[in-house]
Specification:
Rossmann fold, 39% helix
Length: 171
């Protein structure tokens, strides 16, 4: 199936946090404080898409929970067996066919999710195994616009991008 056709079929998005929504780096202070960075363009696209599509994130780090909640995204899956089971239940609960779910992953922990979703994508700097499993590889790296890239493509093809009734700030 061509990229255009796959984008037209998307009815839900799922993104890995580490390496997709972030660049995978964690900064540590001498006191043990931790920071992660998120791209404001990815954030804008997620907030916009959340007004039209079910969105879920995959990750295990409690450090990002404030960021996730601020986006209005309440569905978060963890890596491992129970995460995949919850992911499949989420697909069914949202009345979706697997082929309607876009998954973007960046590392080997995402491969099971990619196999369970319908349209597998990844950032430019994903691992080779993930790139081999992806139907689309963004020109952007994780944490540097890959999320925005695929959301914008899908929403423009479906006519939901840049709607004048949307009220969301980029930050």
């Amino acid at each position: 199936m061509m990229l255009f056709d796959q984008c037209k079929q998307v009815k839900a998005f799922v993104f890995a946090i580490d390496g997709v929504c972030t660049d995978g780096k964690v900064w540590l202070s001498e006191r043990g404080d931790r920071w992660m960075g998120f791209h404001s363009r990815d954030r804008y696209a997620l907030r916009l898409a959340a007004q039209y599509y079910p969105i879920a994130l995959v990750g295990n780090d409690p450090l990002v929970m404030g960021w996730v909640n601020d986006l209005g995204i309440t569905d978060l899956f963890h890596y491992g067996g129970s995460g995949i089971s919850l992911f499949r239940d989420w697909i069914a609960a949202n009345g979706l066919a697997t082929s309607h779910v876009l998954y973007m992953g960046g590392d080997v922990g995402d491969l099971d999710f990619m196999a369970s979703g319908g349209f597998s994508t990844c950032p430019a700097d994903a691992t080779d195994d993930v790139k081999a499993a992806a139907a689309y590889i963004s020109h952007c790296n994780g944490g540097a616009g890959a999320v925005r890239d695929i959301i914008e493509k899908v929403m423009k093809l479906q006519g939901t991008w840049n709607r004048t009734d949307v009220k969301t700030s980029p930050i």
